Amino acid sequence: MERKKVENTYITHPSYKDKFRPQPVKEILREVLTAKLDQAQYHADQTPVLTKAVADEVKDRLKELHLPRYKLIVQVVIGEQRGQGVRVGSRCFWDGDTDTCVSEVYRNETLFCVATAYGIYVY
Amino acid sequence: MDDEGENEFVTEQVQEIAKHAINSTLTNVTYTREKVNQWCQQIIDSCLKELSKLDKPFKYCVTCIIMQKNGAPLHTAATAFWDTKTDGLCCMQVGNDTMDCIVTIYAMQI
């Protein structure tokens, strides 16, 4: 098969309007979490499915932002609230100018949810 | 773009790094609220340090979840929109008597 040749673009930074901005992403996270988890109760069978559904939904919504050359990662953690201690931490080894991470926490009576979205720029 | 061999993401290698980082921090300790921040940071730090020593053209994301054990369940899900040929993720779960620790490492080739 013939391989398509692509010229080097020498683009090392996203243009101003195509940057991955924390604010709209945070709003998306909040919207999706409230929509999906507002009525949700913790249920051993359904919650794993719900976790995946939330992650997929967030990813699809992020794709709709049409940020060219950005790779996206979405991580969702859902646990039952039983008064236990939980610590979620995250650090990255990347280009702080172009790459961003946004996190949002949601809680109701039976469960807590931490959703984190990362945007990584491809040079 | 699609490098063979040396510059690949090797899951086993990264998994070893994560396992070592968790084990060196969390063996023979019990869950303490004051210490958990420090442990979390320590685990992530040592993971990133080892990963950067691999000298591969990757950007890394490391997340660490430490949860006290009291029978409560926890679910995690990860989705990614990236190049499956070059990028990868690896997940490591280690638990002791009082807590569970899950470390997830994402690697994106530059």
Description:
The complex is a heterodimer of chains A (123) and B (110). Chain A has 123 residues and is α+β, with helices and mostly antiparallel strands. Chain A has one domain (19-121): Tctex-1 (Ribosomal protein S3 C-terminal domain, 2-Layer Sandwich), CATH 3.30.1140.40. Chain A contains 2 helices and 4 strands. In chain A, strands 1-4-3 form a 3-stranded antiparallel beta sheet, with helices on one face. In chain A, a hairpin with a 3-residue loop joins strand 3 and strand 4. In chain A, helix 1 (22-37) runs antiparallel to helix 2. Chain A is elongated. With 110 residues, chain B is α+β, with helices and mostly antiparallel strands. Chain B has one domain: Ribosomal protein S3 C-terminal domain, CATH 3.30.1140. Chain B has helices at residues 11-26, 33-53, and strands at 58-68, 74-81, 88-95, 99-109. In chain B, strands 1-4-3 form a 3-stranded antiparallel beta sheet, with helices on one face. In chain B, a hairpin with a 3-residue loop joins strand 3 and strand 4 (99-109). In chain B, helix 1 (11-26) runs antiparallel to helix 2. The longest helix of chain B is centred in the middle third of the chain and has 21 residues, at 33-53. The radius of gyration of chain B is 15 Å and the shape is globular. The model of chain B has no long low-confidence stretch (mean pLDDT 88). Chain B: InterPro entries: Tctex-1-like, Tctex-1-like_sf. Chain B: This is Dynein light chain Tctex-type 1. Chain B: GO terms for molecular function: dynein intermediate chain binding. Chain B: It comes from Vitrella brassicaformis (strain CCMP3155). Chain B: Pfam families: Tctex-1.
